[in-house]
Amino acid sequence: PVPLSPQEHGLDFQRLLDASAYKESYRQDMIRWGEEKRRADPGFFCRAAVEGAAQPVWVVSDTRRLSDVEWFRDVYGAAVRTVRVVAAEETRRRRNWVFVAGVDDAESECGLDQGVTFDWVVTNDGDELALDEQLETLLRWLRDRL
């Protein structure tokens, strides 16, 4: 499901998915809107992510906060596995990331930097072979459980 905020605010959802100036001009407002929704209902976005899902395996990408991980663990228990994808700051800068104070140090960007023990940590620094090996490990684990 598509988050409600872009439609509610007349924004171009597809343009919000890229790394454009369009997205950056709305980023802080979107973060503020998301925080308001979470304060009123901590499971709001988590429920939206799984609504209608019937597959035996789900990949819920881009969780941002400890409360998100806790929600999934509370609802789905031992079935939940966590994966963190990391890249060095140097790699991120090569990919045109620029630190923005008040945004990149907000909970929406670093809320899972502490307090979560991840089942897997995948490093994505541009080495395709290393990335493939790490993903193959995940896929093997998953296939063993289906």
Report the average pLDDT across residues: 84
pLDDT < 50 runs, ≥5 residues: none
Strand content: 5-15%
Shape: globular
- Give, in spatial order, the strands making up the sheet with the most strands: 1-2
C-alpha Rg, in Å? 17 Å
User: How many angstroms does the end-to-end distance come to?
Assistant: 25 Å
Described by strand count, sense and barrel closure, the largest sheet is: 2 strands, parallel
Count of extended strands: 2
Name of the CATH homologous superfamily of the domain at 60-144: P-loop containing nucleotide triphosphate hydrolases
User: How many DSSP helices?
Assistant: 8
Name of the CATH class of the domain at 60-144: Alpha Beta
* CATH topology description of the domain at 60-144: Rossmann fold
Please state the second-level CATH architecture of the domain at 60-144: 3-Layer(aba) Sandwich
